[in-house]
Amino acid sequence: MLSRLSLCRRHPLCQHFAAVVAASRRPVATFEAAPVAPLTPPRQTPNVMHGTRLATDPRWRRRMREDLYRRRMLAGPEPERPRSVWSNWSRRAELSAAAHRLGLAGLAGFSQQWLDRVLTFRESAEADGVTADSSIAHQNVAKGYELDDESSDSVAMATSSTPAESMPRDNAELVPTGRALIAEHCGRFLARELPHVPENLREQAVSLLTSDQSLSFVAGHLGLAELLSGVDTRPSMLPLSVEADAFAALVASAKLCCPNLSEGDEAAWRLTRDFLLTRLHNSDINEWWTIDAQRRLPLLSESLAAAGFPADEPLEFRLMGQSAPESPVYSCFQVGLYIRREFLSSGFGETAAQAQDECVSEALKTLFDTADSRAPMNFKLTYADLASALE
Amino acid sequence: MSRQMLPRVFLSQPLQNGVSRYTCQLKRITLKFCKFRPNSLGAREFIENGDFLEFARANPQVACYLKPRRNRPPVLQAEFANGSVQLARIDSFPAEFVRRWFWLMRGRSGDDLLPLHENLRSFHPSVQGVWTPFTFGRSVGLGDLPDSRHRPMSPSATELIQQLHRLQSARMS
């Protein structure tokens, strides 16, 4: 007696679906998929269809669905592909949209071709043997989805007003300029907003802000990762440093493309301010640096000396409050720090020693003006304000 | 799924959008429709009325695509800056509804639609400082025993003898 499952497998719909699944395993575009280890079918495939019963489906169709699901799971995941292989992609349109999204479309001297070069990394321009002028045209023609349109953008792209010689072929020179510019912007901003914080702590914050991880996070959220050319833009193959370099190149390009120097400075500063420095908003600024436990008390003494308290003035720690004797469950100690009989800070802890450490941290926050009660940072600063603050 | 089952999230914006500058989070939008089937009629009218072009012109920061697909229901695919993709099924929708979905996607951030803990969020909810038991200088749970504020339920042995002594003195005197 033939089993119902074997009947199911011979059903034409089932065979059709199996053929579709087999076809989906072939690469869709001329794109080499990353090598994937062959899957060994698990002993029991998870079956989400179990327990779900469509009342209208006859039993044979229900079993067919379960079988199809099992086959699809065995066929393995879809190969990872960059966004550009799908048909709803036009590099020209994407660059234009990105330029508007980043607020760079209004800048004099900024064009899609310029943005294309900014997001081009060196390998592709040499490997494909494509001249820099026709990089956009080549990709669009290769896609085969070039549509006629009356907009002037395509005309401007073909015959760019800016001579091709003045445009760089790729962003290799823009990247270090951009990185330096971003670090300078961050350093200046923090120097202006946190004048009482020692410089080594500010430098820690700047290095965190300008790290590859931070910059690539920003670049990803701006949609730059999909627009890169010359690198493998699949998320698993794209290193963080490349995305970070893309953002750096963008900042440098905003400065360099403008013939007017101050406009370029302002444009580059706004990119850093609006996308990178706003990461400091709604975060505890004290989390952006670490002070060693041994270093806290000496740092406090130095800060007090800088604030005008002489070095020989003793720091007095006094027990301000205690809830229950010292025990791991109920105890809460409040210790206050006094200098010259003036209250400086207080701290809580499970033991008096912990409360004392907390007290020192709070005192440092008070002296550095990084407590919760400080004024919020000013993210509307212009480049002129920033430059003037240092003088 | 009911609201009790869904996880709750806090109000947030990707990349602190709006603090310094507002960036439209919609990167590209694709209208997939069929040229013949009646359930795509609204989508086709939306295109033919010029509303699609109007949206594209009003939003240069969004890349707009049209994707005719035979024998498939119409779908709106919106891709956002945080990488999320949202699909809106516009099966048999009138053109006006398609237009509203387009403009709705334009205003979204791409975050999942989940219930919020609160409709506002602040990292500095307290201006004067959060109350603690020690705020007004109290020490809680300390003291020497016996404390006169404590009322014993029954007299202690010492107090019983003292009471007996007082009674006896009263009788004797």
Main attributes?
heterodimer, A: 391 residues, mainly alpha, Ribonuclease iii, N-terminal Endonuclease Domain, Chain A, 4 domains, three-stranded antiparallel beta sheet, 16 helices, flat, B: 173 residues, alpha+beta, Glutaredoxin, four-stranded mixed beta sheet, 4 helices, 4 strands, rod-shaped, ribonucleoprotein (chain B)
Summarize the structure.
Chain A is mainly alpha-helical and 391 residues long. Chain A has helices at 4-9, 12-24, 59-75, 91-101, 112-118, 122-127, 135-143, 152-158, 174-193, 199-209, 212-221, 240-256, 261-276, 296-307, 352-368, 383-389, and strands spanning 315-323, 332-339, 342-349.
Written description of the protein model:
The complex is a heterodimer of chains A (391) and B (173). With 391 residues, chain A is mainly alpha-helical. Chain A folds into four domains: 1-26, no CATH class; 85-166, no CATH class; 174-286, Orthogonal Bundle (Ribonuclease iii, N-terminal Endonuclease Domain, Chain A); 293-368, Double Stranded RNA Binding Domain. Chain A contains 16 helices and three strands. In chain A, strands 1-2-3 form a three-stranded antiparallel sheet. In chain A, a hairpin with an 8-residue loop joins strand 1 (315-323) and strand 2. In chain A, helix 2 (12-24) runs parallel beside helix 3 (59-75), helix 9 packs across helix 10 (199-209) and helix 14 (296-307) runs parallel beside helix 15 (352-368). Chain B is rod-shaped and about 120 Å long. By secondary structure, chain B is an alpha+beta fold. In chain B, helix 1 packs across helix 3 (95-107). Chain B has a four-stranded mixed sheet with strand order 2-1-3-4, covered by helices on one side. Chain A: Residues 153-164 have a biased composition (Polar residues). Chain A: Residues 161-253 form the Large ribosomal subunit protein mL44 endonuclease domain.
